[in-house]
């Protein structure tokens, strides 16, 4: 079995939940979607 991991330089990496694009929701700043998901 092969396990493939996404790299930050791969095509469409900006759509990954680890993409370093933060956002604000309900007054809270989240550095990545993964931070929001884990919280």
Automatic annotation (TrEMBL):
Endpoints of the signal sequence: none
CDD domains, A to Z: NADAR
Reactions listed under catalytic activity: 5-amino-6-(5-phospho-D-ribosylamino)uracil + H2O = 5,6-diaminouracil + D-ribose 5-phosphate; 2,5-diamino-6-hydroxy-4-(5-phosphoribosylamino)-pyrimidine + H2O = 2,5,6-triamino-4-hydroxypyrimidine + D-ribose 5-phosphate
InterPro entries noted in UniProt: NADAR, YbiA-like_sf
Protein name: NADAR family protein
Organism: Asticcacaulis currens
